[in-house]
Design brief:
Blueprint lengths: L3 H11 L4 H25 L8 E2 L6 H9 L4 H13 L2 H18 L12 H28 L8 E4 L8 E4 L3 H46 L1
Antiparallel strand pairs: 1-3, 2-3
Helix pairs in contact: 1-2, 1-5, 2-4, 2-7, 4-6, 5-6, 6-7
């Protein structure tokens, strides 16, 4: 598939983000999307064909592969990238709504349609919460599906129609383990950045509101 739409989405939202948000976008684009497209996709390209069991029993390899890889790591990674990036659409839609509203009324309704304040601030905070939630959910899925972020060299399978407990060998386990650790590390960094940006925005606008109230009382 083409990942151009995701690149365009992240580039478009970049101008509405804070400094921390721009770092998050750079990490998603450079260290996750590009690594996925350029390298990781090829590592899992023939994972089913290269999965071998020491039996010729028809259907045995298929059921064993399905047991240990119920969802392909690379497809789960792709789904994670899409879902983590799409909350940014909320911000882009809100800015587009503001710009369209100004055009309809033919007057200046906002100091800057892309400035993070008022309703747009709430939308931005919701997008951060959603992105953090998706990251945590997918880390949990990877942990549960792949036995604690591990890719073993050998797995034993005794499911029907296998005649007995057979040994099955996973192709390129070390390489897959490296990419899995990289995925977990970048997800962890993105979670830290999202929480930091969320805290920064809440503190910034809380202080701003407090100072505004204080100045009104003084007057």
């Amino acid at each position: 598939m083409s990942w151009g739409f995701l690149r365009d989405l992240l580039s478009g939202v970049n101008k509405y983000s804070t400094g921390i948000g721009r770092i998050w976008i750079a990490i998603v684009f450079i260290f996750r999307l590009l690594v996925y497209v350029v390298a990781a996709e090829n590592v899992w390209k023939y994972e089913h064909d290269e999965f071998e069991c020491n039996t010729k029993q028809p259907g045995c390899e298929n059921v064993c592969f399905d047991r240990f890889f119920p969802v392909s790591q690379i497809r789960l990674w792709a789904l994670q990238l899409i879902l983590v990036s799409t909350p940014s659409l909320l911000v882009a839609f809100h800015v587009a709504y503001r710009e369209n509203r100004e055009k309809r009324h033919n007057q200046k309704l906002y100091r800057s349609p892309g400035e993070i304040d008022g309703g747009l601030l709430c939308t931005y905070l919701v997008s951060l919460v959603l992105k953090t939630g998706f990251e945590i959910v997918f880390l949990f899925l990877f942990y549960k599906l792949y036995n604690g972020f591990k890719v073993p060299r050998l797995v034993k399978c005794d499911m029907r129609p296998c005649p007995n407990a057979v040994d099955c060998y996973i192709s390129k386990p070390t390489e897959k383990m490296i990419f899995l650790c990289f995925l977990v590390a970048t997800s962890g960094v993105c979670i830290v950045l999202n929480v930091s940006e969320l805290s920064y925005l809440i503190c910034k606008y809380s202080i701003k509101c407090y100072l505004k109230m204080f100045s009104k009382k003084q007057q």
